[in-house]
Amino acid sequence: MMPGRYKSSPSSTMSLAFCGNDNNSAAYNVDKGVLNNGCFLDALSVVPHVFLLFITFPILFIGWGSQSSKVHIHHSTWLHFPGHNLRWILTFILLFVLVCEIAEGIVSDGSTETRHLHLYMPAGLAFMAAITSIIFYHNIETSNFPKLLLALLVYWILAFVTKTIKFVKFCEHGIWMTQLRFCITGLLVLLYGTLLAVEINVIRVRRYVCFKHPTEVKPPEDLQDLGVRFLQPFVNLLSKGTYWWMNTFITSAHKRPIDLKVIGKLPIAMRALTNYVHLRKAFEAQKTKASAYPQGSKSIWCALRYAFGRPLVLSITFRFLADLLGFAGPLCISGIVHHLGKENKTFLPPVKLLGVYFISSQEFLANAYVLAVLLFFALLLQRTFLQASYYVAIETGINLRGAMQTKIYNKIMRLCTSNMSMGEMTVGQICNLVAIDTNQLMWFFFLCPNLWAMPVQIILGVILLYYLLGISALIGATVIAVLAPVQYFVATKLSQAQKSTLEYSSERLKKTTELLRGIKLLKLYAWENIFHDSVKETRQKELTSLKAFALYTSISIFMNAAIPIAAVLTTFVVHAHLSEDADLSPAVAFASLSLFHILVTPLFLLSSVVRSTVKALVSVQKLSEFFSSEEIGEDPDQKVPVLMPPANHNKYQALPLKVVNRKRPTREDWNSYSPPRERSNEAAKDDEECIKITNGYFTWTPDGSPTLSNIDIRIPHGQLTMIVGQVGCGKSSLLLAALGEMQKISGNVYWNSLPGHESEGEDSIEKDTAIDADVRKRGSVAYASQKPWLLNATVVENIIFETTFNKMRYKAVIEACSLQPDIDILPQGDQTQIGERGVNLSGGQRQRISVARALYQQTNVVFLDDPFSALDIHLSDHLMQEGILKMLREEKRTVVLVTHKLQYLPHADWIIAMKDGIIQKEGTLKDIQNSEPELFEHWKSLMNRQDQGLEKETVAESNTALERKNLRRAMYSRELAGKNEEEDEGDSVESDDEDNLSSVLRQRAKMPWRACGTYLSSAGFLLLLLLLFSQFFKHSVLLAIDYWLAKWTSDVISGKVHSEGKNCTTNQDCRFDHSSYSMVFSILCCLGIILCLVTSVAVEWTGLKVAKELHHNLLKRIILAPMRLFETTPLGNILNRFSVDTNTIDQHIPATLECLSRSTLLCVSALAVISYVTPVFLISLLPLTVACYFIQKYFRMASRDLQQLDDSTQLPLLSHFSETVEGLTTIRAFRYEDKFRQRLLDYTDTNNIASLFLTAANRWLEVRMEYIGACVVLIAAVASITNSLYNHLSSGLVGLGLTYALMVSNYLNWMVRNLADMEVQLGAVRRINSLLKIEPENYEGLLSPSQIPATWPQQGEIQIQNLSVRYDSTLKPVLKHVNAHIFPGQKVGICGRTGSGKSSFSLAFFRMVDTFEGRIIIDGIDIAKLPLQTLRSRFSIILQDPFLFSGTIR
Q1: φ, ψ dihedrals at 175, nearest 5°
Q2: Which of 319, 378, 1179, 1206 is a plausible cystine mate for 453, CB 3.0–4.6 Å?
Q3: E strand or H helix at 724, and its extent?
């Protein structure tokens, strides 16, 4: 055995031997049996560890060394064995206990002359073995090879046995709980035993040994799908806690920007559909408890608790643990300083039993070094728990948001059309539910753990303070508590100020938008200044409310900084003067200082948590109102069986709401469930009818009078039916009634789908339940609504509308709707984005695309609601002939056409005439001629009138031409738009891909220092000086306060020692005089509070000044910019500078700037204090700084990309909602609900994955910064303890250094986060700055106003000499060498075909275009010499495209 080796040469190493070599050598005494020798027991426990190290190292190095190059292979074999998390937790506890054992051995060995290796070497080996065991286990798990776990099984058995023997021997020798080593050994026996049980459990479940057939286990299907890159749910516990799996992701952002491809797909458990199913189950679970079914908003809260309560409880638990561990900091500081301050460092000599020394836990914990190590571990754990709590809460919030958005969308799909049309619910309101209210709920879930943790934190903090300082602590806590409501008041005022600022800024935006839209008119009429002043006036009002906002913000910042100072001041001054023998030692002072820092945090958060809770309550109220609004008629008996994705294997009964991603049921299923109907002997007759409505009464509002009464109609199969009547007689309503969009009071709607007649619509019939028992299996209906509805997509996507692309058919449809000329004009042809965010199309173009969509679909039935309303006569005729009569008739489709163009009536197979919501007559044209001759004559006269309209065709035709021309001009101006925006962004793109990427990356890596310079220089020199000096002085004073406290408390101690040295005769002589100290302390604190106010005001004042300057300059520059800018830059880009960017500069940058400067200065001052107290610390500062630098460098880039992704993925989601609400009837008519739901789920998941990655990236940063902070604390503690013990550093300074070290990690975090925010926000300054560089038009003329006659131009004689004009110096001329002479009083017409330069010619008179050759002389004055203002104000023009300003007609 091992001791043999040492026994052979006890004298070889004098001071170092395994068992020590004391003279009496009791250690080697084996008279009472080997097992009664303490040293031998320790040697025995080395065996298992050595065994494990020898067995596993070869396997690890040989087996996995070769695999390291193919690490990604593991990705698909990741499997967690049973008891995975428990094993990791037990291993962490084991490691901690082993560290304690090593420390205990070293401390108890300190009291002997020679070193006893056996006290701590076995524990050191055990520590290495424990680490090896978990690495080994992790590798086995990732490669799914459980047989190798047998090595661990043997190890746990051996370790358990050896420790148990040692424990039993301790008990036999009467060593009991008073000795620390006994407790540690007991714990180790327990841990090894539990780990052994975990190992046996793996064998039981996986059956990899002792069983014939091992269990086959597959990794989760998410991991088999290589698209999933978000690995948080699948990695091991250590990687989960430290976000280790994010390393490669974040560092790769440095090599290439992060985009949607890089972040991949969401894991199944986090997808919106999965969470929506949970939420719906929660709602249904409540309904089953029908007796006490909560109503309204309460039911939503209950459902949320049921669906998302568990992870929230987990988050709150983590938060509690973190808060409890947070108090370890002050207590350890107190212990360390107390230990160093005690002059009598004597303890009882350690007890010697079994020939070995033992110490008690009191002695162990009284060692300063031990406390420093414990503090380090407490900090690591506390920070890990805190970040885990944040992560779980945020992930739950994001999941909840996805589920809520899906629920809202499903509700929208079933909303009554009347809700929308009657104005009960606007698109805006619904979009607000999605954009604002679901986010409020998400934020509430983020902050929810604080609601529970804060009270506990405050109560514990106050108890500890009371324990340290007695009654004076309560006084300090009262100061904080009294000022907390004031803070709440300030916070409410702040949100009010923000609201009023918002109102003014939206008014200013409205005016700015109008100004930019009508900029051409303004320039031509020389009205720039009028509008400039109007915007300026609104901006002035906005700035006034911004001042209030800034004031309250600065008060809020001031209070955050001043409250702790005030609390500390009152507490210590009261404590010093309250009691005669007040204990104001450094230990007490600095522990209470740290406690105050802890206490202040929850009180700051209080106001935001309360606000968030109130907002969440309001949001849930809104949501419950929305969820309870009217839906279109449903049949309550029909429940659709819905099949879920394989993640949840349960089939559950669904409401009539359909969940996406369901497998298509078999035909029998659906047939069995359509309402049973007896086919009568009228079957043959029925087959001729496509739709039949009998005795129908329909209404829009449930309690209103019927809109349509006594409707009895039939629509024949495969024929053209026309519905005619006056405006407002209910033609469109009739179509919607047939589609089931109206509320039916009585009667029947009967659809008869011919078997096998549908090609495309077939699945949709099978897919859907009847909305109403009467609407018998209505198939898909191609419906073109009266107001055309377009998707935010390309022209092609709008026309083919979710079906397969068929080139021949597409061409035919385009031809029928005469769309080709319009498509040719578009910049990217039919791949051009149209809709809300794309190119603006005219009404006629939109209508034709909408009709083209209906023609392209191969459904059995086509409804066209007044498709000719926005078309001129030629286009209408073409559409009627080619589209309706040729395409649809030939395909034998049933067409229902609502129209006012009576000249098409002869083409109709069946006519329905309506009047005031009732059917006037139905039949063929002949029937009507025979039965209602007056009506027929009336129609005839109208037709004649419409034929006369043909003579006016030229007007109509020119309209279409005009639309196209305007479009062409818009396109022409957009060609340069892309270029401009890119130049704006500062990353212009080179042709070569490699260069391009590297240049973009270089741009991304740089901090925008220039923009920062622009920002600060706009503030002016004086303000900048004030800002810098106030910040500098404030932090100096804050340092001085703490330094003085250290001096004061150290002097108290030395005073006590001094007074004990000289015997005082009276009590008076021995008392320490606090008055001078507390006087200086009070003055410093008051100065600190004043400086806090000055800095907070200075920052906000700077922000205001910059906001004012930048907006003023921007507005001036834009108004005077040449017309070319507005033709080449999309309006949205310029508007964004006035809206989003101005808002960022107004409200966000000042706060970020303040936070950044404060955290940076606090960080610097903390490091300075530690370095002053222990200069040795400077050596370790270098590696820590390097680590910090790289972490922030990588994080900033990843964070910015993810932030942009998060923002950019929200837009499609929101526009999908507004799009759906606007096109609800069309989507339902086409029966495309499922396709749109699927699209919503994709958008939601894309947005959520970006948010999740952003969260994980923030946690990644914070965990790393916190760990660096913990290292700072450890190094500072060890260095200052050593310094104090050997160089007699005063204990006050040790306390000061440690208190500052504790706060470093917080400041580091804030610094990096604010740096990242600042970088994003300075982008706004950069973009505005790029617009400020535009050259304005030359408004100054060569002639002064006095040289121009007041009545010019009087005669109106115009000479045009060799005039050449172009739009821009880079473009070709539009007019070349024009010469003309126009005499006074002549009327001149300019004609020419489209694009020949007529408009350009007229604009040349106003100098709106670049005249680069020749001149125009009017009444003897060359217009090039006139000031622009004068020139434009003397002429008048009526523009081709009219523009109206908002306001009354007058």
Answers
A1: -80, 125
A2: 319
A3: strand 720-724
Q: DSSP string of 1118-1159?
A: HHTS-HHHHHHS-HHHHHHIIIIIHHIIIIIHHHHHHHHHHH
Tally of CB atoms within 10 A around 646: 8
What is the dihedral angle through the alpha carbons of 850, 856, 858, 863, rounded to the nearest 10 degrees? Answer: 30
Confirm if 479 and 570 have CB atoms less than 8 A apart.
yes
pTM for this structure?
0.83
> CA gyration radius for the chain?
41
What the block records as the tokens of 1348 is 């121009």
Q: In this predicted structure, what is the pLDDT of residue 64? A: 61
How wide is the angle at C-alpha 1148 spanned by C-alphas 1141 and 430, nearest 5°? 70
Torsional sign, CA 668, 672, 675, 678: positive
pLDDT digits (tens, 9 = 90+) for 245-296: 999 889 888 888 888 888 888 888 899 999 999 999 998 888 877 556 567 7
In three-state form (DSSP H/G/I as H, E/B as E, the rest C), the secondary structure along 640-665 is: EEECCCCCCCCCEEECCCCCCCCCCC
Q: What is the DSSP string of 1203-1246?
A: HHHHHHHHHHHHHHHHHHHHTHHHHHHHT-HHHHHHHHHHHHHH
Q: How many CB atoms lie within 10 A of CB 34?
A: 12
What CA–CA distance (Å, rounded) separates 1069 from 1064? 6
Helices 471-517 & 586-627 angle (0-180, nearest 10): 40
Q: How far, in Å, CA of 1017 to CA of 1031, rounded?
A: 18
| 805 CB-near residues (< 8 Å, 6+ apart) | 796
Q: What is the dihedral of CA 772, 773, 775, 777, to 10 degrees?
A: 110
CB 567 within 8 A of CB 477: yes
Distance CA 860, CA 883 (A): 15
pLDDT digits (tens, 9 = 90+) for 860-869: 899 999 888 8
Contacts of 840 (CB under 8 A, 6+ apart): 970
Please state, in angstroms and rounded to a whole number, the distance separating the CA atoms of residues 159 and 180: 20
Helix, coil or strand: residue 1411: strand
Residue 1014: name the closest of 1136, 1106, 930 by CA: 1106
d(CA 14, CA 115): 9
The pLDDT tens digits of the residues spanning 1137-1171 come to: 888 888 888 888 888 888 888 889 999 999 999 99
Q: Name beta bridge partners: 912.
A: 723, 922
Low-confidence ranges of the chain (pLDDT < 50): 1-14, 68-74, 344, 635-684, 755-775, 953-956, 972-992
Whether omega before 675 lies within 30 degrees of 0, making that bond cis, reads: no
Strand 640-642 with 652-654, pairing:
antiparallel
Residue 691 CA to residue 718 CA, distance in Å, equals 11
- Burial class of residue 1399 (count of CB atoms within 10 Å of its CB; 0-12, 13-18, 19+): middle
**What stretch of H or E contains 723?**
strand 720-724
* Three-class secondary structure assignment of 886-923: HHHHHCCCEEEEECCCHHHHHHCCEEEEEECCEEEEEE
| Contact by Cβ (8 Å): 414, 657 | yes
Q: What integer pLDDT is reported at residue 1001 of this predicted model? A: 61
